[in-house]
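R.M. (postdoc): so does anyone remember the format we settled on? I'll just put the structure tokens first.
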């Protein structure tokens, strides 16, 4: 979470979800990142924000049990890219011979 997300969370908590809706927050965040994100190292650029959004979406689809092919078809990305994101986002599981007993 960068400083912009933290500030927006505080504003949303103060104003409430009925005034500062998710749609308003998303619009403000996208506009702010577009205008100022590349100038400040502590505010993620719009491109970095979009990449993070895509990764969250892939993670959500993985959680729903979709295959790499289904994810790639749904999001318009290559199966290879979906596979690489799955590897990046999936929790590491120890190999069968890697378990240690106390």
């Amino acid at each position: 979470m960068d400083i912009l997300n933290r500030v927006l969370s505080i504003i949303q908590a103060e104003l409430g979800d009925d005034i500062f809706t998710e749609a308003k927050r998303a619009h403000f965040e996208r506009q702010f990142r577009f205008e100022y994100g590349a100038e400040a190292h502590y505010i993620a650029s719009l491109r970095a924000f979009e990449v993070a959004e895509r990764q969250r979406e892939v993670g959500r689809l993985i959680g729903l049990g979709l295959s790499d092919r289904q994810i790639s078809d749904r999001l318009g990305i290559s199966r290879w890219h979906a596979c690489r994101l799955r590897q990046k986002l999936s929790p590491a599981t120890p190999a069968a011979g890697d378990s240690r007993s106390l």
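R.M.: ...and that's the designed sequence above, right after the tokens. Also worth knowing: Residues 30 and 46 are 7 Å apart (CA to CA). The chain has five helices and no strands.
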